[in-house]
């Protein structure tokens, strides 16, 4: 694996593991909790997080809007912690394996997403990391400030 990608993947390993540990502090009933009428429920947030890794990887490969719409329909987990965790693990493994197979020329290849963003595949990986971290922060904030729980989960090394 490219050494720069290896570092990102190591950080993503920690991020995915910490989300699973945060999920372990929840019950399936908590998934219905909607902290704000304008925002996703905890379950909707986690379901979104569970598909991010593969979705962002596919977008970086140049998937069309139609292909992504189909992916989201097929990839949506059942609204249970077990299903969401399984989906997250599988989609993260897809990203991890896909990045591991790429050579430097592949990582430097620039693609344009169906919504007009232009990045190299390496930049898509960075974007995926930022996207996942953003939602992990939201999840942690909901646990602490809405559910009034201190999860005691390490978020950074």
From TrEMBL:
Signal peptide: none annotated. InterPro entries: DinB-like, DinB/YfiT-like. Residues 13-139 form the DinB-like domain. SUPFAM superfamilies: DinB/YfiT-like putative metalloenzymes. This is DinB family protein. The lineage of its organism: Bacteria, Bacillati, Bacillota, Bacilli, Bacillales.
């Amino acid at each position: 694996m490219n050494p720069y990608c290896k570092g990102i993947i190591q950080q993503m390993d920690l991020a995915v593991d910490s989300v699973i540990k945060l999920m372990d502090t929840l019950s399936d009933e908590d998934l219905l909790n909607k902290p704000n009428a304008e925002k996703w429920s905890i379950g909707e947030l986690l379901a979104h997080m569970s598909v991010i890794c593969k979705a962002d990887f596919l977008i970086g490969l140049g998937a069309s809007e139609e292909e992504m719409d189909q992916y989201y329909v097929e990839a949506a987990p059942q609204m249970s912690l077990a299903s969401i965790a399984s989906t997250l693990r599988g989609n993260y493994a897809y990203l991890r394996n896909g990045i591991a197979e790429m050579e430097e020329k592949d990582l430097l290849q620039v693609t344009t997403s169906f919504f007009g963003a232009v990045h190299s595949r390496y930049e898509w990986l960075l974007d995926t990391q930022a996207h996942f971290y953003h939602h992990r922060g939201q999840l942690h904030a909901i646990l602490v400030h809405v559910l009034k729980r201190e999860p005691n989960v390490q978020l950074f090394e």
